[in-house]
Amino acid sequence: MPGHDSAREIYRQALPVIGVSLIAGLFAGTILGSETMRANIAEVPGLLLLLPAFLATRGGVYGSLGARLSTGLSFLNGMTVSVFIAVVTYLALVLFGDGGSLFQLVGVMVVAGFLSAVLMITVLIAVIFVGYRRGLDPDNVIGPVVTTLGDVFGVLFLLVGVSVVGAVS
Amino acid sequence: MTEPESPAVDEWSIRRIVGTMIPLLAALSVLQLVSGTVLETYEKVLLQYPALLVLVPVQIGTAGNLASITCSRLTTQLYLGTYEFSPSNPALRANAAAVFGLAATVFGAVGVAAWAIGVALGGSLVLGRVLTISLVSGMLLAVLVVVASVVAVEASYRVGLNPDDTTIPVVTNLCDIAGVLILFGVVSVVL
Hints:
heterodimer; A: mainly alpha; Tetracycline Repressor, domain 2; 6 helices; B: mainly alpha; 7 helices; disordered N terminus
């Protein structure tokens, strides 16, 4: 009964998932702390500025996909918000006078946003169905899976985005 | 809403979900720029100590996880009728206790791991400091997760929005932003 779980029961059910997400988060952190990424951060103005917004969108958009299956919509939401973040970040950079390139930021976000959208939707559907068959309570599982994948692949795709935009321009 | 659909279908309609989600997500990403600004401010420190850079996504991710578990559970309990806005509510207590337990376990492990990875990436922070930063900011975050989740579910219910749509984005985002603020608040005290 989901309404009558004890604290210990919630802890026991959530710990493995959070543990996995922790390991994934550490991977994301390792990518973020790597030489290449640190060089990118120093080189691309605005990257650190949009990082939290970008990572958070993943959780927000695809978290509610977990709550109610509507894939095409999440794709649209994810892309719209990604581009929006890039534009706002650019405006913030202009405002604070740090300088930055709108093309570069939007490019990075479009590439990273698109790749994450494809991956997240695919994985989420798989997780929901496998989880259901294994008898896991989706409330305890989907949220963490989403934020985890979002973080790891978010940072990775950000790296990909920077190099794609770097190659194009 | 005068469309000839049944309320159950309307609740799931595309326009309704987009109408609720897009403005919310847009507003929240603008708010996220607050924590982005904090990150930018600490750019030099972050580039110097990779362990802190490792802590950023873990801290944000774990806060988001704990928040989304708590919100999902409270929303489900709201639907089931076992939720009540009261400190003596057993469902609420169980959730809070679980969040604190999870936070203590997880942020302890995170501290050690971030320290080790930081050293591997060429950082120079000692274990004690990374562990202190991780645990102190983690436990503060756990308090915030519990309070924010309860308030969000309660507020969403009172205003008449479906907590499934609103609470998870709001609380995870809030915890993300606060996570970065708390993290760097603790960093500036410890370092």
